[in-house]
């Protein structure tokens, strides 16, 4: 298993890390491993292109122009 040394870690950040590890009932090393694992295994952000058509069932049969007009009138 690899060893990671972190130099110049700000004291305040280390104290937060210690507190978090204590809350989670882990050692600091275990908590760092957990945080890094979660950060690096997170899913890729969704592309705006993947959102195309999302929610279209909510607008089916709706008059978009009327909706916009009503929204704008409610701002006054």
Structural account:
- The chain is mainly alpha-helical.
- It has a domain at 11-40.
- It has 4 helices and no strands.
- It is elongated, with a radius of gyration of 24 Å.
What's the layout of helices and strands?
Blueprint: H1 11-23, H2 28-40, H3 56-59, H4 64-74
Features:
76 residues; mainly alpha
**Could you tell me the radius of gyration in angstroms?**
24 Å
Bin the strand percentage.
under 5%
Q: What is the general shape? A: elongated
Structural class by helix and strand composition: mainly alpha
Helix content: 40-55%
Count of DSSP H/I helices: 4
Quaternary state of the chains: single chain
Quote the distance from N terminus to C terminus. Answer: 64 Å
| Number of DSSP-assigned strands | 0
Mean pLDDT: 88
Low-confidence stretches: none
Largest beta sheet, briefly? none
Order of helices and strands: HHHH
In short:
The chain is an all-alpha fold. The chain contains four helices and no strands.
């Amino acid at each position: 298993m690899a060893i990671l040394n972190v130099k110049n870690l700000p004291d305040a950040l280390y104290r937060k890390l210690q507190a978090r590890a204590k809350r989670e009932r882990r050692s600091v090393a275990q908590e760092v491993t957990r945080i890094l694992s979660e950060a690096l295994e997170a899913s890729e952000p969704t592309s705006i292109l993947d959102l195309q058509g999302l929610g279209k069932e909510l607008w089916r049969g709706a008059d978009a122009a009327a909706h916009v007009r009503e929204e704008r009138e409610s701002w006054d």
